[in-house]
Specification:
Order of helices and strands: HHHH
Shape: rod-shaped
Structural class: mainly alpha
Number of helices: 4
Largest sheet: none
Helix content: over 70%
Distance between the termini: 66 Å
């Protein structure tokens, strides 16, 4: 479980650190949550067996960081989309955009 947590933590961070993957960043969050659970279970099992818990701890930490960063990126994208939607639905903006578009179309004829 410890190694699985470590691998999932790395995958979660990859989804956060590579911008083109932000489009499917929710995958990083899901993988991160699974990594947190496996890391916690792995730590508990290794402590009961009096073995080193470093790998499980590292996996859990990376999974937590990946999950938190995925949530932050998701929130930022949602806020940006909400602001853009509000701006695009403004009648003043639409009128200005229409005028500029017509001006450019006439210029390119």
């Amino acid at each position: 479980m410890a190694i699985a947590s470590l691998v999932l933590g790395i995958i979660s961070l990859v989804f956060v650190l590579i911008p083109p993957l932000w489009l499917i960043g929710w995958v990083g969050a899901i993988v991160g949550v699974i990594g947190i659970v496996l890391g916690a279970l792995g730590r508990k099992k290794l402590k009961e067996e009096n073995q080193a818990t470093g790998t499980a701890t590292a996996g859990m930490v990376m999974s937590i960081i990946g999950t938190v960063l995925s949530a932050i990126i998701f929130a930022a994208c949602a806020a940006g989309m909400a602001a853009a939607s509000k701006e695009l639905s403004d009648p003043k903006f639409q009128e200005k955009f229409k005028k500029e578009l017509e001006k450019e179309l006439e210029k390119n004829k």
